Amino acid sequence: MQTTNYPAEPYKIKVVEPIAMTTRQQRAQYLRDAGYNTFLINSEQCYIDLLTDSGTTAMSDKQWAGMMLGDEAYAGSKNFLHLQATVREYYGFKHIIPTHQGRGAENLLSRLCIKPGDVVPGNMYFTTTRAHQELNGAKFVDIIIDEAHDSQADVPFKGNVDLEKLQKLIDEVGPERIPYVCVAVTVNLAGGQPVSMENLRAVHALCAPLGIKVMFDATRCVENAYFIKTREPSCADKSIREILKEMMSYADGCTMSGKKDCLVNIGGFLCMNDDKLYQRASELVVLFEGMPSYGGLAGRDMEAMARGIKESVDFHYIEHRIAQCRYLADRLEAAGVPIVRPVGGHAVFLDARAFLDHIPQDEFPAQTLAAQLYLESGVRSMERGIVSAGRNKETGDHHRPKLELVRLTIPRRVYTYAHLDVVAQSCINLYARRREIGGMKMVYEPAFLRFFTARFEPLPVKTPAAPAERVTELETA
């Protein structure tokens, strides 16, 4: 009997949006049209859309009211001044450069700090972050703890930096070849796993005397703060706001996709404390984004983001946010569906390697599982495995991550527990007939970030239960 308490939604619904109800036959056609890539399915063809939590937030009434106060001046917008003051108050950084979204900030940081031959250590790669680093001549080196690559290792802070790995890398290449250490809080591709305050403090203490900057990917920093409060005893009595401010004190700056923990549909920023770096960033942003006081954003979007930052540190909001992930995970685990443990802050990650253990990694089990889940129920999810990992640019071979995952990403303040019941039952149904599922082959591969636009075709099912080859249901539905 389920005894876990899940907090009710700390909001009431003021506006509703109808969602699509499709047939299995329709979804099979939509999949074929999309090349079996869930990124290429239209949103109106999805019943429950768990592709991403990026920009899919439901904004509050106060945020929508703020949108009406947009100052669309080309320079010196009052909304920028509000955003600047809010970032300084809640994150503590001296300087902020707005960008159209997080990868705009990644682009600026990489161009400003990286020179060919540099090495950028990080606690597991993220797709766009590593792409920008590599395009500017750096090599990414993973320094996350080993447990992060084990889907079943039940460790409270699986996002932690392995300090011995970091020190070894510094000794090997020298601090002058490390422009910054990139620390994600939380770590998306490990399953939304947090980094402890103790670890953040230790990373800063190691790097500061050597002149190595620490730059956070702060996209889901509020979720990280919640995990610190609930899992790190020394911070149990602190508020989310206090924890967030202390976290940021151990960094020299950050990139931020405001489309996640800032609770908006578009926007981001780059922060730093270094005056000279800020001056260079102010010059470079004009080439790629816009003036330093808007960076590709309308004034109304900056106003919504400033208000979202304030709302994000409310304990009741973030408690419910994390509880929705835990609720879905608990339902799946109770039915024996393999997931990443412990559950993270923005999504539940299906362990596709264990779910479809009869499909080799080169036949894209996570991509296959995401396509099959959509066919089953209209639930759209995202592959986070060998397709997302891309290719080694030196050998041309696939990167083969140990984690082969499907991400069920929960948008903020959008779906109810009842929607998550549908998602859970769909996964459970699919798991019961997993041996009927065959892998896929890639028939189109773009040069960069292939998971966004690659296309696939089904392969025949080859299982002990099917001695004669037959095509997967995806092809015949």
Automatic annotation (TrEMBL):
Residues of the Aromatic amino acid beta-eliminating lyase/threonine aldolase domain: 49-425
User: Quaternary state and partners of this protein?
Assistant: Homotetramer.
Name recorded for this polypeptide: Tyrosine phenol-lyase
- Report any one BP term from Gene Ontology: tyrosine metabolic process
Where in this protein does the record say N6-(pyridoxal phosphate)lysine is found?
260
Query: Which residue spans adopt a coiled-coil conformation according to this UniProt entry?
Result: none
- UniProt lineage: Bacteria, Pseudomonadati, Pseudomonadota, Betaproteobacteria, Burkholderiales
- What is catalysed by this protein? L-tyrosine + H2O = phenol + pyruvate + NH4(+)
Record Pfam families: Beta_elim_lyase
Source organism: Comamonas flocculans
Keyword Lyase tagged? yes
